[in-house]
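Shipment paperwork, digital attachment
Item: protein structure file
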Amino acid sequence: MIDHLRIAEAQLRGRPRQALVALVSVAVGVAMLLVTLSLTTGLSRDFVAKTTASSPHVEVLPRRGSSRPDRLVVGEGELVALSRHHLPDEKRAVRAVAAVLEATRAVAGVRVATPAVEAQVVLAYGTVERPAALLGVEPSLEAGVTALDEQVVAGSWHALGRRPNGVLLGAALARDLGAEVGATLQAAGEGGGVTSLEVVGIVASGLSRIDRTLALVNLPLAQALAGLASDQATTIRIGLDDPARAPEVAAAVAARSGYLCRSWQERNAASVEAFDRQNRITLVLVLFTTLVAAFGVANVLVQIVSDKRRDIAIMRAAGFSRHDIGVIFLHQGALLGLMGAVGGWVVGALLIRVVASLPVDFGEAAVLRNEHLQMAEEPWFYLAALAVAVAVCAVAAVGPARRAASVEPTAILRGER
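Attachment content:
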């Protein structure tokens, strides 16, 4: 039996400098691939984690599902009474909240459901005014829907329930207003009335759209500012045992309640798609680094074929077949890919930890706000990088392997070629 692997290793040791250059290029490509996988996966997971922790998994919208037939068929002489969901001067809202909550809580997978009122207001602190997204909730139930109660960085979540006119502000909104815990704000709603609010806490969710606009108040106060009755809300906020089942639960709640429902995946579809597109583009660019490493491997093997033509001819004369010669050079390409990948694992693991420790600031307009990059690290990252490196290097070795297999031993030994 011919030990193809041992012969391939011996030939690589015969050209240490060229082999080292090829190994370094493969290691760099693998390390960059690992860091890219870690960064893109970490950012995506961080966005999903922050989104599901700071907003409801499913929300009931103040719009009825369409039950009107495409075509109304009536007999001759029949009268048909048509009605609409609401009058033009009525506010769009979820009505008979208690009945909707009962139907919602009966759906499997729903952990908690609570009414909420969303309204646009203008907050004023001294001479500074800022628009805000007012959210009225029942604090005790809201803590089961989101993790906003765990994201309070100043003040207290429980103080909101004790103060009817209390408000929790997003961190960026509080900074823009210049307001701190204990400050008194003036809130102007859609109806033009002004209400005094006392800042009882500041929330930092890590999501820019929440931290820049959130003004969390008690439900009765929001209902009054929005001009809604006590049995009305603009939405029902639902927390699930499994956020991944949100689309399925949204469909079930819509069927039971008669209102349209929206999952967190649907609400954030544009952002999720943007992250996925960015990840794909980045991975494609990094894969080109691995392809460059493949050219280095091919170059090293071509040089070995050129320098070892006489040795190859002697091997052929000693009984090695064309297939044996080709397999030896394919083994060389796979060896370079394997050893380069192992070196890339070490470098990549170190780089992941270095990048994760670096402080970052993406600016006020960033979707995510973090003090450090959120890096993910999974075993399949390393297995994927190994597979890519070995496969690319093995493919790069095909050309040199065919060239080596085509060597004519008689001509070489006679000195004719």
